[in-house]
Amino acid sequence: GISLKQQIMIGITGSLVILLKWSGVLIIPFFILCTISCRYKPFLKDRVKEACIPLSILLITVTLLLFNNFLRLGHLLPDTSALAGRYIIKPAWYYLLNFHNILIVPFLWVLFAFGFFVIFKKRSPKHQLLAIWFLVFLTGISIAQGKDLRYSLLVLPSALLISCVGISALIEYAKTQKQRGWMEILVIIVLLGIYALLLTHTQRILNRNTATSIGFQEAGQWIKKESSSQTLILASSPRLIRYYSGINFKEFGGNILLLPMDQMIFQNTIEKFRGPVLLEIDYWEKIRQPRWLYPITDNTRQYMKNLGFQQVEVVEKEIYVTGEPKQMVPVAWIFKKQ
Fold first, then answer.
1. Residue 147 backbone class (left: φ over 0; alpha: ψ -120 to 50; beta: rest)
2. Each residue of 63-91: pLDDT tens digit?
3. For residue 281, what are the β-bridge partners?
4. What pairing do the DSSP bridges indicate for beta strands 326-337 and 309-320?
5. pTM of the predicted model as reported, rounded to 2 decimal places
């Protein structure tokens, strides 16, 4: 059985997961399903009895966090923009279709599938726990309307461990067939192949990111320095501005709003707000820039001036422009209305 000390440590460990990030709350349904399904004790009532203390600690942690939200933000729920699909909406099967990208190395998919087959065949408590871990977190991020590959980091540890189950089963099979030496050579080749693919893949990502989506740090830090608690911030890339400025979305106690695509809504927002307004436009998120506002031209500046805005900051970076050599160009503009 699980001792009292172990029960408390399970609850504390789960609470730390939730404190790191709100999506860690998925550990609660994971814990409940493990208690019901994993037969480490034959009788359910005995398993439920041992689960009471850890589950109570988890629920107390969530309750305290919700109460803290209410005191600081005026409402119980945290930032739910990903759940509501405010910015990046994808279908429920998005992560399944991109599972090869989650595992990073394409051929790990085969080992993962074989590992899942082994888990389904053996059905021991430890294998069931691993399967529930993967399925609960995959279901949790798939239900949320807002989806991005970076959210799939929640399922990566369990997916890799399931792949390792597949590798382990192959090694055990090789032992029974007296092919251990051959299997060890194969594992070394697979590992070297993984390292080679990861190196080139990572290098491509780094090269791409150093030449794109730059300037947000400078824009976010400038906004943080020049804004106050009374400033409304309209951003065409609100997630990145939130990240680099440390200012949250308005609905969660901050000052940042997504820049409206509709011109009349934009003007009504400006007219109704009594206070300073900062407006961020950038070079990268072109599909999110209103056509009546981007690209920035003399007509655009005149239009903004008529609304009471002045261009107060321009962030320039050296980038590759399509069909042209690398050059210094504006990548972010900030307008201000007092």
1. beta
2. 999 988 888 767 777 766 666 666 667 78
3. 333
4. antiparallel
5. 0.65
